[in-house]
């Protein structure tokens, strides 16, 4: 009986600590109206046991548009709005997806905007979020609660200070994508 009681107390305390960390995280992070910077990305392909590196720049206007411009190894751009996803290679549009005809675009847009702008309320709709906050640094671990997302993603970790600095995406197939941001400029 004593063990059960202690287990209940520990569970309540754990929930309380988790809630405080997520509240601390929400208070620490900021989402400027506009932000730009550069990124370096490494994608580990589990079946090939190799990694592909890329780099480029990005900018966003909160809740309106994210432009993700890969410069190496190929010149390509992904332009994302809450309703559309456009892709370009060497400045020529090669694809356009619209949320009216493809509902996956709306979910992808929600998640991408949520991650890039650390909008925790959006991410909590798709993921269980746990957070660690210490000395102005934070790390959040997102585990999908939606089965359709869980089919692609096992886990996402986000790390940063005032702004998001790193993303690591653990795919269901074993692939791992790590993105590191630098030269962040609030506009």
From TrEMBL:
What species was this sequence derived from?
Marinomonas maritima
Q: Which residues cross the membrane?
A: none
Question: Assembly and partners?
Answer: Monomer.
Signal peptide residues are 1-19
Alphabetically sorted, this entry's keywords are: Lipoprotein, Protein transport, Signal, Transport
UniProt keyword Cytoplasm present: no
- What is this protein's record name? Outer membrane lipoprotein carrier protein LolA
* UniProt-listed Pfam families: LolA
What domain of life is recorded for the organism?
Bacteria
InterPro entries documented for this protein: LolA/LolB/LppX, OM_lipoprot_carrier_LolA-like
């Amino acid at each position: 009986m004593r063990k059960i009681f202690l287990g209940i107390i520990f569970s309540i305390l754990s929930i309380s600590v988790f809630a405080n960390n997520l509240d601390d995280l929400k208070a620490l992070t900021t989402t400027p109206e506009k932000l730009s910077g550069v990124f370096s990305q490494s994608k580990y392909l589990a079946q090939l046991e190799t990694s592909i590196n890329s780099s480029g720049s990005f900018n966003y206007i909160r809740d309106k548009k994210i432009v993700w411009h890969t410069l190496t190894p190929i010149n390509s751009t992904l332009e994302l709005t809450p309703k559309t996803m456009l892709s370009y290679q060497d400045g020529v549009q090669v694809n356009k997806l619209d949320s009216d005809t493809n509902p996956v675009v709306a979910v992808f847009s929600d998640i991408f905007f949520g991650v890039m702008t650390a909008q925790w309320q959006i991410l909590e709709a798709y993921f269980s979020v746990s957070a660690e906050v210490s000395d102005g640094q934070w790390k959040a671990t997102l585990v999908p609660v939606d089965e359709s997302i869980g089919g692609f993603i096992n886990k996402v970790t986000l790390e940063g200070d005032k702004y998001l600095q790193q993303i690591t995406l653990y795919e269901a197939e074993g692939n791992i994508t790590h993105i590191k941001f630098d030269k962040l400029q609030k506009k």
